[in-house]
Design goal:
With 440 residues, the chain is α/β, with parallel strands linked by helices. The chain contains 14 helices and twelve strands. Helix 4 packs antiparallel against helix 5, helix 6 packs antiparallel against helix 13 and helix 8 runs antiparallel to helix 12.
Length: 440
Amino acid sequence: MSGDTIVAAATPPGCGGIGIVRISGPAARAIAKAMLGAVPVPRYATTATFADQDGRPIDSGLALWFPRPQSFTGEDVLELHGHGGPVVMDLLIRRALELGARAARPGEFSERAFLNGKIDLAQAEAIADLIDAGSAEAARAALGSLAGEFSREIVELGLRVMGLRVFVEAAIDFPDEDVEFLDSPEVRERLADIAARFGRISRAAAQGRALSEGLSVVIAGRPNAGKSSLLNALAGHAAAIVTEIPGTTRDVLRERIDIDGLPLRVIDTAGLRDAADVIEEEGVRRARSEMRRADLVLYLIDSGIGAAPGELETLPQEPPVLLVWNKIDIARPPDDSRPALAISALTGAGLPELRERLKDAAGYRASDGGVYSARRRHLDALARAEGLVQSAAARLAERASFELVAEELRLAQQALGEITGAVTSDALLGAIFSSFCIGK
């Protein structure tokens, strides 16, 4: 596909003041000449008329030309900044297709930037995380990773592991000096430094994953337990209708909430009971479906009424369930040995502690810096690499085969390379970039 030229709208669908069409590839120069009459001055915004095949104007606006390799993708890139109407965007894209371009796949511009060495894989993923950021803290973490902060830490850690591996392989050639090597302060210092770096990077990456992925929280319970009132209290506005009539909430209601920078997807559900009609029955079915998919379930019980016989025994083991006694402004929760939290969604009592419990569930703590935008695969690769280094250290302590130690360090280095894309596969690239929006 290196010879293909791709085109897509780089702005969201719909009407807007400005719409941007991005073209990248070897035919971009010819397309610029055909549509604009000439290739614009590189990296300067040039006023231009965008013409169709008969020379009639499609639109007028700004044209930007980025010749390879000094462009985002590393290829010739043309950007047309016109009026942001869907018809105009469609006409500009159609004209580029007539001139030899093809429609870009999701994330293909970023994929080409990675394949052409302009960014590494962690930076490419940070682009999507920045676009999808659910809070200011998440955006800052993604911007730091996009600037290469996370990648530099991973590369430096990989170099430290490689240095120890070289040291071990060098010792293989001198078997009579094994004991001196094992007792060497340099080996102990290298292992301690690597272990400290793993710990620091893993903590920062775990925080970043919490910021980028957030937490999916389902509020469940019997009718009139105060589920919608709790959603409103967490959201800070009347997101859900609240009445004293049981069964007011019949469908799933979703709300995005930010708690100290942690993005939450909070889902209010229909009250769990034997449904009175087919509509409520469907609401209860959807509620149970959302509970199964959640990261955490807040199960509310009215403190004044208590739990129904056998109600708590039917709660699922997975995902985790936090039992919440609501309406403590009216009645005290009954004595119960189960771990629980007592709140009043009406007065706000207990809500600060609930917010802390939500952050604990996500493994998140507010930070002034040093957080990287990270994903589950990054944490998995870090954990594998750290485990291999620990295994290598144990073999050294046991005076095991140096060849096995060197192999485990090589595999650890390879696991770290998966994060930045130094070691990767086509399947992984396809999975990552297919989640991007078209035009990025």
